[in-house]
């Protein structure tokens, strides 16, 4: 009997919503991180375009390319056995036209093996979502704070904080569901708004800074594990401080090398005595 866990399906995620079973999601961008997330039991691994910031050192998500996202997605897919893998479509990969959006989404499915893609926004994105779904690639929507539109939104700030804006977000959520999205991320919106959206749509909502009423939650790997520094969003909870652990390990390594304590005998490979004698004899000739 195989020990490999059964692969989660998109209908299974919908069933979890109907059963009020909370979904868990984290971002991951490489093989070891994705393997650890999958083995821990995470339901959705999101290969986020946040890799632009966490992995490549950019200030925003905008510079990351399709080829870079495909590389990260391939690595994650190779590691994951159970979780659903969703790939973020980077800026410029779906905004231009339905045709280019479909072509790029198909690349994520065919070349990288992603189970689904995620696109930001409503408005023009509704047609893109519908076209991608019609082409056979499942789509996760993303409403609220959409990082690819951060300049237009006036920075990284909470959205839908007025009654009118909240009503528009609820309408957008309904429209994304009607366009065929199997799920949607709600980022940085008031908890009351996310609760309303979660109640009126039949697909799972995944919150990040959207309160406890969403059907699931997502956090960025580096935030969750304490691998980031500087400003931290209000919605982040750090479950470890691995940055400090890594710093201490590196400093101990430097100290051991400089102090002559590493490598020790147990870290070296021995040579048979007879061969060592031959080597010493050869040196004397």
Notes on the structure:
There is one protein chain. The protein folds into 2 domains: 10-240, Alpha-Beta Barrel (TIM Barrel); 245-284, no CATH class. 44% of the residues lie in helices and 13% in strands. The protein has 12 helices and 8 strands. It has helices at 10-18, 31-40, 51-54, 66-79, 98-110, 124-134, 150-153, 163-178, 191-200, 221-224, 242-258, 273-284; strands at residues 23-27, 44-47, 84-88, 116-118, 139-144, 183-187, 205-208, 216-219. Helix 6 links the parallel strand 4 and strand 5 (139-144).
What's the arrangement of secondary structure elements?
Elements: H1 10-18, E1 23-27, H2 31-40, E2 44-47, H3 51-54, H4 66-79, E3 84-88, H5 98-110, E4 116-118, H6 124-134, E5 139-144, H7 150-153, H8 163-178, E6 183-187, H9 191-200, E7 205-208, E8 216-219, H10 221-224, H11 242-258, H12 273-284
Parallel strand pairs: 1-2, 1-8, 2-3, 3-4, 4-5, 5-6, 6-7, 7-8
The coarse silhouette is elongated
**What's the CATH H-level superfamily name of the largest domain?**
Phosphoenolpyruvate-binding domains
CATH architecture of the largest domain: Alpha-Beta Barrel
The CATH class name of the largest domain reads: Alpha Beta
Main beta sheet, described? 8 strands, parallel, barrel
> What is the average per-residue confidence, as pLDDT, rounded to a whole number?
95
Structural class: alpha/beta
How much of the polypeptide forms β-strand, as a percent range? 5-15%
């Amino acid at each position: 009997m195989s020990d490999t866990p059964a692969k989660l399906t998109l209908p299974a995620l919908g069933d979890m919503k109907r059963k009020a079973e909370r979904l868990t999601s984290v971002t991951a961008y490489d093989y070891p991180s994705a393997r650890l997330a999958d083995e821990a039991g995470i339901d959705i691994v999101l290969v986020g375009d946040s890799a632009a910031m966490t992995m490549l050192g950019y200030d925003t998500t905008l510079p990351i390319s399709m080829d870079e996202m495909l590389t990260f997605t391939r690595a994650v897919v190779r590691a994951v056995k159970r979780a659903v893998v969703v790939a973020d479509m980077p800026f410029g990969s779906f905004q231009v036209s339905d045709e280019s959006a479909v072509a790029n989404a198909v690349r994520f499915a065919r070349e990288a093996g992603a189970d689904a893609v995620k696109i930001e926004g409503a408005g023009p994105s509704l047609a893109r979502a519908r076209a991608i779904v019609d082409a056979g690639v499942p789509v996760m929507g993303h409403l609220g704070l959409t990082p690819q539109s951060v300049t237009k939104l006036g920075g990284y700030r909470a959205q839908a904080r007025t009654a009118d804006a909240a009503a528009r977000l609820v309408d957008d959520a309904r429209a994304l569901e009607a366009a065929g999205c199997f799920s949607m991320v709600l980022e940085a919106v008031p908890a009351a708004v996310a609760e309303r959206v979660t109640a009126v749509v039949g697909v799972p909502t995944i919150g990040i800074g959207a309160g406890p009423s969403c059907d699931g939650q997502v956090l960025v790997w580096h935030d969750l594990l304490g691998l980031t520094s500087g400003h931290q969003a209000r919605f982040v909870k750090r479950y470890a401080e691995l940055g400090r652990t890594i710093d201490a390990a590196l400093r101990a390594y430097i100290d051991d090398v400089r102090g002559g304590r590493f490598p020790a005998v147990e870290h070296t490979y021995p040579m048979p005595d007879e061969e060592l004698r031959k080597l010493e004899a050869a040196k004397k000739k």
